[in-house]
């Protein structure tokens, strides 16, 4: 089945998400759609899948114009989509999730669960997935959950499969397994659309690469393109993908020591289980792991955003565990949260006011209840210049800026004072390649200024680019601490819960 997009356009208010896009999706081909976050990739795929309707342009399936008014209409024409965030019901079994909305019925119009199980087993065995139809989805690893999503599409005889950022929650080994599955599907004649911003994966899997920038297709990249060449097509200029940094100058006189830290998650279960580790000044410690293994709860506890059940945290010898956030920040801790919109900025505030949110108790910006507006304005102008925040001026509302510029606001605020400990959680999530380059350089500069730097990232390329040492977390515990020279497959095994020593042996 071949899909042709002809001058497809989609707007949301004043924002043009897709601007006269024309693409052909061919059977038996893995077509990678490459672009920065916000380039319009997901919007385009949601149009194909019936979640959005185009404002202009046409969709043709095997040369026949079609209108998909809903995902069901798209599925009925043989289009399936595996979303970045799985669309599964955790309390349902594999068979129940796969057949939901298309349940087989007995002659008495009752649900035929036995037929559903047989169909799931048949599809799973055909593609070598080995899924247990009776397993609860909530008890499955994320890599297996993704296979359930794929089987959901294949069970409806999908001929076109769309994968939207499919490796975001996978270990390297699970990513390799997914790539093998996609190659098998394309060899059987399925059309595969693979949406990603991960250059390494695109180069590994693509039969064809289309690059989208600012809602427009800017061209097809040759299959032999280097990562730097692909990045340049994505952003429209030359970009350095590696950080040049000097060896770390570790200083135990400036350190943060965590001892026996235990933290309970929002669900009442232990999210951080008796962790002990020290972070030294002048060093970047990167915490790697599949998302949801306690990394978020760990760093939130360090900065006082989450209660500590037990344990100790000292910053330069001063105990901060259990203290208020403002007291921990005053002790020399800076924090970039993983969700900048929810926890990093106030969108309805101006840039200049976001830059002083944690500095309004005394100091140069206030006297009692009065704010020194001239000082706040001067600080805003200086930060905009230093951090290259693309905005009309310091009085622009933070919520009107791009994700990259919002992240620069958070960085500018947190790095405006001397720090003993700087924590950045998912520091480049949702950023374009150019903004990533800038953020990485500022993180290294903070290390070189003597702070202990802790980075939490699910992006292994980012971990390797920044780390002076790598800590891997799995189910709330530290699996191991390894140097940045550690092979990627070893890190992948550790992310699956295999201890460091055992992972090294298994990878040989």
Automatic annotation (TrEMBL):
Which residue windows are transmembrane per the record? none
User: Which SUPFAM superfamilies does this entry report, sorted A to Z?
Assistant: P-loop containing nucleoside triphosphate hydrolases
Looking at the record, the residues that make up the ABC transporter domain are: 3-239, 252-500
The reply on keyword Lyase is no
Q: Name the UniProt key words of this record, in alphabetical order.
A: ATP-binding, Nucleotide-binding
- Pfam families cross-referenced by the UniProt entry: ABC_tran (PF00005)
What are the GO MF terms of this UniProt record? Answer: ATP binding
Q: What name does this protein carry?
A: ABC transporter ATP-binding protein
- Organism of provenance: Herbiconiux moechotypicola
């Amino acid at each position: 089945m071949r899909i042709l997009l002809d001058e497809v356009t989609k707007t949301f208010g004043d924002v043009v998400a897709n601007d006269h896009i024309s693409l052909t999706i061919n059977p038996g081909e893995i077509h990678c759609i490459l672009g920065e976050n916000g380039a319009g990739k997901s919007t385009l795929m949601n149009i194909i899948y019936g979640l959005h309707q185009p404002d202009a342009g046409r969709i043709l399936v095997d040369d026949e114009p079609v209108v998909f008014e809903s995902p069901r209409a798209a599925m009925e024409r043989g289009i399936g989509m595996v979303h970045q965030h799985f669309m599964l019901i955790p309390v349902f079994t594999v068979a129940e999730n796969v057949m939901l909305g298309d349940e087989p019925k007995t002659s008495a119009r009752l649900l035929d669960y036995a037929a559903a199980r047989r169909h799931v087993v048949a599809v799973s065995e055909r593609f070598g997935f080995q899924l247990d139809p009776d397993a609860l989805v909530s008890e499955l690893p994320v890599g297996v959950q993704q296979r359930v999503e794929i089987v959901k599409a294949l069970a409806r005889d999908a001929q076109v499969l769309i994968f939207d950022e499919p490796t975001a929650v996978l270990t390297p080994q699970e990513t390799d397994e997914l790539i093998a599955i996609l190659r098998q599907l394309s060899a059987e004649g399925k059309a595969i659309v693979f949406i990603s911003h991960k250059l390494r994966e695109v180069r590994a899997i693509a039969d064809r690469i289309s690059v989208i920038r600012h809602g427009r297709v800017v061209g097809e990249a040759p299959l032999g393109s280097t990562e730097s060449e692909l990045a340049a097509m994505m952003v429209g200029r030359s970009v350095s993908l590696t950080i040049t940094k000097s060896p770390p100058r570790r200083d135990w006189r400036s350190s943060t020591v965590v001892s026996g830290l235990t933290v309970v998650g929002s669900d009442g279960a232990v999210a951080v289980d008796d962790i002990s580790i020290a972070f030294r000044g002048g060093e970047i410690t990167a915490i790697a792991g599949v998302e949801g293994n306690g990394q978020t709860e760990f760093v939130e506890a360090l900065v006082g955003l989450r209660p500590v059940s037990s344990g100790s945290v000292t910053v330069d010898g001063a105990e901060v565990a259990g203290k208020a956030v403002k007291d921990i920040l005053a002790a020399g801790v800076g924090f970039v949260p993983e969700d900048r919109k929810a926890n990093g900025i106030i969108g309805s505030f101006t840039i200049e006011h976001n830059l002083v949110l944690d500095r309004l108790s005394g100091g140069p910006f206030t006297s009692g209840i009065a704010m020194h507006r001239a000082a706040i304005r001067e600080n805003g102008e200086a930060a905009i210049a230093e951090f290259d925040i693309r905005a009309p001026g310091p009085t622009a509302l933070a919520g009107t800026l791009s994700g990259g510029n919002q992240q620069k606001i958070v960085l500018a605020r947190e790095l405006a004072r001397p720090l003993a400990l700087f924590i950045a959680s998912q520091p480049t999530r949702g950023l374009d390649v150019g903004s990533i380059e800038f953020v990485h350089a500022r993180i290294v500069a903070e290390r070189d200024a003597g702070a202990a730097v802790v980075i939490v990232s699910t992006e292994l390329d980012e971990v390797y680019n920044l780390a002076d040492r790598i800590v891997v977390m799995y189910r709330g515990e530290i699996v191991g601490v390894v140097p940045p020279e550690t092979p990627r497959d070893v890190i992948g095994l550790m992310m699956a819960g295999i201890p460091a020593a055992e992972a090294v042996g298994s990878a040989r």
